[in-house]
Specification:
single chain; about 300 residues; alpha+beta; Ribosomal Protein S5, domain 2; four-stranded antiparallel beta sheet; three-stranded antiparallel beta sheet; 9 helices
């Protein structure tokens, strides 16, 4: 992935000290130098987050209808070496806030407290708050299963977190997950326009996260793929606008069906598309590779 060139003025004319990105002034001197938020994000050491099967079960909107609590989902903490697209289900807005409040690096403090601090900083009094899986995926290392029960803290935070930081498992995840850029969520898009909150489908969704985590730990590509595929079936049944919406001008369902017919499994990185996450032990043309972050004291 190409990064913007950071350089001094190239005009040949005196324009004063500073740094430019593509000719736009970012930092001026003398005195304290404010840094453009995009440059700060580029230099940030805050990890990235990838969500896998079970997504949306972290929202009380769904978990309160789950007849088989807890329902589970899986998040993977990624090294911060890649700048992912914005509005693509990779917790980009959460990472931007973490970069701002923590000066671009995770504080050396207990992880549960960091999760709550970041949750509060991002959500405030939002009527539709971001789920805590965004924060946990950034902060907890390795592959984590998050178990949500609406009777525990209203379902806003997991009743239990099970993390795997095995370097062997991490290497397998890096080898079999492939990310294909598809689109960014468009302006005016809202995935909650239609809500089919049927308990049987929500129970199925929660089971996909548990199956996904178990498959990853035993390095079972077909079990992983099946969990990802089933998660997308649940999304379409419960929240149809996650995969089809008047504001989305590409056929996400057709792209997904194409990938699922050719590989063990595929799902989108977030509602409205983002990246197509493909599970395959074979190379996938045009795909990005990930680096799982396994360091930290929680594993």
């Amino acid at each position: 992935m190409d990064f913007p060139t950071v350089r001094g003025s190239q005009s040949g004319q005196e324009s004063g000290p500073g740094l430019t990105v593509g000719g736009s002034l970012l930092v001026t001197e003398p005195g304290p130098r404010p840094v453009c938020s995009d440059v700060a994000l580029l230099a940030s050491r805050i990890p990235n987050r990838l969500a896998l099967a079970g997504g949306w079960i972290d929202q009380p909107l769904l978990s309160r209808h789950n007849p088989e609590p807890p329902g589970s989902m899986v998040v993977v903490s990624l090294e911060p070496g890649c700048w992912f697209m914005e509005r693509c289900g990779m917790a980009g807005s959460t990472r931007r806030i973490a970069t701002r409040i923590w000066d671009g690096a995770l504080p050396d403090r207990p992880l549960p407290g960091l999760v709550r601090e970041l949750y509060s900083a991002e959500n405030g009094n939002k009527p539709e708050p971001s789920g805590s899986q965004d924060m946990i995926g950034l902060i907890y290392p390795g592959v984590s299963r998050l178990d949500y029960d609406a009777d525990i803290e209203g379902g806003c935070f997991p009743a239990h977190i099970e993390s795997c930081c095995s370097t062997d498992v991490a290497a397998w995840v890096e080898r079999v997950l492939h990310l294909i850029p598809v689109n960014q969520r468009p302006a005016g898009y809202n995935p909650l326009g239609i809500r089919n909150l049927h308990p049987e489908w929500i129970a199925k969704l929660g089971r996909t996260g548990r199956a996904c985590f178990a498959a990853i730990v035993r390095k079972d590509i077909h079990g992983l793929g099946a969990a990802m595929n089933q998660c997308m079936t649940c999304w379409e049944a419960i929240l149809p606008h996650t995969v089809s919406h008047p504001a989305i001008n590409i056929d996400l369902k057709a792209i997904l069906a194409w990938a699922q017919a050719r590989f063990p499994g595929a799902m989108y990185s977030g509602c409205g598309g983002g990246y197509l996450v493909v599970a395959s032990e074979e190379p996938v043309s045009g795909a990005l590779r990930i680096k799982v972050r396994t360091g930290g004291s929680s594993c």
